[in-house]
Design goal:
Elements lengths: L6 H5 L5 H20 L5 H10 L3 H7 L5 H10 L1 H15 L5 H11 L3 H25 L9 H17 L7 E6 L2 H20 L3 H6 L7 H13 L5 E5 H18 L3 H4 L15 H6 L4 H19 L4 H11 L6
Antiparallel strand pairs: 1-2
Length: about 325
Amino acid sequence: MPSSASPSWLDTLPLDFYDQLAHCLSLHGMAAAELLSRPATALTQQLTDLTGLRSADVQRLNEIQNHEQLLAALRTEPLALYHLLLLGRLTLETSLATPVLAYVQQQMTISEEQLHTLNNYCLELSGAFLTTLEEHLPAPAGAASLGLHRLRVEEIFAEYVAQIPVPVPPAANLRLTEPQLQMLRLSLLLVHSLPQAADHPFMRAVGQFKNLQPEALEPLLEHLGRAHAQEQLTLTMPELIQLYQGMQVCGMVFVSDVMARIGLEELFPTLPADADAATTEAAPASHRQAVGEMVTGFTRWVQHTFPDSPEIAQAREEVLALADLL
C-alpha cells in the first residue's frame, strides 16, 4: 500500500498551490531526471534503493500540470514526489545541474542573473515544501523518521558527488573562420601521427610531451570535430595548451626537413632555391607561408592573452627546447 499524506493537511492547501510550485516542480523534475540518467555506480544504486525513485517515476511526476494532479500525487505517491524534490534539490546545488540550467536559460531566454534568481527561488520553495512534507508523511520502511532518512540520502549523494571529477573551467571563447578551424585540426592530427611517422630526434621528443600524447589529444580532436566556423568554441586551459604546443610543433615541421620525412613536402610546395628575386616577389604566398602565418598569429594571441600564465610559460619553454632537435 502506498504511503499517503493526511487528507486534512491536503485540504488546507490553497487552490493556487500548484501555480506557486509549478516552476519549482519542473526544475527539480528535470534535475532529478538528469541525475538518474547518469551512468550507474554503486552509490547511485544506493540512492535508488533508498528512495525507490526511478526514471519512469520522474517522468510520470513531471507530467503534473495542475492543482488536481498535484493533490492526486500527494495522496497516492507522496514519497515519490518527496524524493523527486529531494534529489532534484541536491542536484541543483551542484555542477550536475549545468546542462539542465543551460537548457532552461535557452528555453526561457533569460540572463545568467535571472537564471540564478530563478534557481534560488525554486530551491527556497523546495526547502520549505520538503520540511512541510516531513511533518506530515510517514517515514519509509526501516527509517526512524523522514528527516533521518533524508540525512542518509544526502550523505550518499555527497559521497557520489565527491567521486565526480571537478569540471575544468573555460579559459577562452573563440569564434574561428573555417581556415583557422581547419588549421587547428590539422596541427593536432599532425602531432598525433608524428611519434609513429619516422625515426627522428624531434619526433621522438614530441612523443614524450604529456599534453600531446595520442590518447590525450583524442578528446580535443573530437571537440574540434564538432565545432563549426564562426560559432563559439569554448576551450579549457589544458585544451588551449595542447593547441598552443600543437600549433608550434606544426610550424616547426613546416620549416624543417621533418615535413619531407613524413611526406608533406608535395602538399606544401615552396619555390626552388634558384628562383630569382623578381619571381620570388611576384609569386603568391605558398600554402606553407599561409600556414606559418596562422601558426604565428595563434601562438602570439595566446601569449598576449595569457601573459602571466605559468602553464603557458612552461608550455612555451618545452616547445622552444624542440628547436635544437631539428
